[in-house]
Amino acid sequence: MTTSQRIAIGADHGGFDLKQQLLAHLGSAGHQLQDVGTSSNKATDYPVYARAVAEAVSSGKADAGIMIDGAGIGSCMAANKVPGVRAAMAYDLSSARNSREHNNANVLTLGAGLIGAGLAKQIVDAWLATECTEARHLKRVAMFGEDVGDMNLTDQDIERVVDRLHEILGPVPIPQANGATVGDDPDAAREFVRLGATGLTSVAPVERPGDIPGDLARYIDHTLLKPQATEDQLRQICAEALEFNFRAGCVNPTWVPLVASLLRGSDVLTCTVVGFPLGANEPAIKAMEARRAIRNGAREIDMVLNIGAMKSGDDDLVLQDIRAVVEDCVDGGAVCKVILETALLTDDEKRRASELSRQARAHFVKTSTGFSTGGATVADVALMADVVRGAGMEVKASGGISSYEDAKAMIEAGATRLGASASIGIVREAKATSVSA
């Protein structure tokens, strides 16, 4: 159990609501809290409150500090200007623990626009409970206050940092799809590091799994989601997935432990569905379902968004719904695909749903469950790809894909993954096409 600590906590207008929830959470745990503001959702400047939190820690009035703004990045930079402060931004449990165990951070910054209250509470608890005790880590932390000279970062150093951050963070929203990024300009990245940046983000281009028709199997999630599917049929699906080297085997949640065990050690992933097929479960239930599936061995989660909320114009609920699952997928090292059920949406709703999936930092958007009034269309795949491509996200086309020509058309429209139950026939047709070409 975490020992009671004196904690200074602050937020700007974007982090105010989350601050109030964390105050209640930390107070119930017995911590002594110093709220430095802000006191409402009225627009204000985050550096003011980040500095107040940092100065409380620097002066010894607080043992630790927590600051919340929209992304957590600016507050981290502002807090680190205060002598004696080691501020770190955390976006999951691993980064929270690492910032304490390896870097002895005494101020934690959070992005209310990136994480929900549930994950934020877990991050704060993990951060407070972790200590820096290893001599090698303490030695390096002591160097923070020394003049260690010019870092002399090479272009290769910057490239490795950017690649690793992209690997950890996954797809991230960016304001525009065009223009140079820190991944393209090592000099700019080096300057940001010199000015105090503690993290860099770069969106890597989406790469196709392989050439078509030759590598078509690596695009396909070999799927069996029928409610009457038996264990023998699931075992057969796994045997086929291994034989043809499909990208994943996609099955209902009850079969995940079996499928994961049969596919273990291969290049074929275990994929399952959440909130399937209606999408009408509460966000917390979907998140719990995703966590359980990941614990059972799923590496990819295809969730159905709240279609009714989408059509009602309740974008806040849709975003909360998607984000709840994405957060648990990211924490569990799994990929999250958001099923839009495009046959039930207007083009405007498809765009909004894709954009909300992008804001929630999902890895894919997906067309269909295969259980509604229609499946994937070339037009829908192209529309969705246009919205999410700039964020490094991918598109999965699913529903009604029964031939090589169907698969090829979807890939040419922008899909990098296909969901199909006719997978073997599609691949055999593709191979025949390749031989005759």
Topology, please?
Layout: E1 6-11, H1 16-28, E2 32-35, H2 46-58, E3 64-69, H3 73-79, E4 87-89, H4 93-101, E5 107-111, H5 117-129, H6 135-142, H7 155-169, H8 186-194, E6 220-224, H9 231-244, E7 248-251, H10 256-263, E8 269-274, H11 283-295, E9 300-304, H12 307-312, H13 315-331, E10 335-339, H14 347-359, E11 364-366, H15 378-388, E12 394-398, H16 404-413, E13 417-420, H17 423-436
Parallel strand pairs: 1-2, 1-3, 3-5, 4-5, 6-7, 6-13, 7-8, 8-9, 9-10, 10-11, 11-12, 12-13
Helix pairs in contact: 1-5, 2-3, 4-5, 9-10, 11-13, 13-14, 14-15
- Detail the poorly predicted runs: 146-150, 172-179
Task: Count every beta strand, where a strand is a DSSP E run of 2 or more residues.
Answer: 13
Question: How far do the termini sit from each other?
Answer: 67 Å
Indicate the structural class. alpha/beta
What name does the CATH topology of the largest domain carry?
TIM Barrel
Query: Mind describing the biggest β-sheet?
Result: 8 strands, parallel, barrel
Give the topology string: H per helix, E per strand. EHEHEHEHEHHHHEHEHEHEHHEHEHEHEH
Radius of gyration, in Å, reads 24 Å
Number of domains: 3
Going by CATH, the homologous superfamily of the largest domain would be: Aldolase class I
The side-by-side strand order for the widest beta sheet comes to: 6-7-8-9-10-11-12-13
Strand content: 5-15%
CATH class of the largest domain: Alpha Beta
CATH architecture of the largest domain: Alpha-Beta Barrel
Mean residue pLDDT:
88
Number of helices: 17
Quick one: overall form?
Answer: elongated
Proportion of residues in helical segments: 40-55%
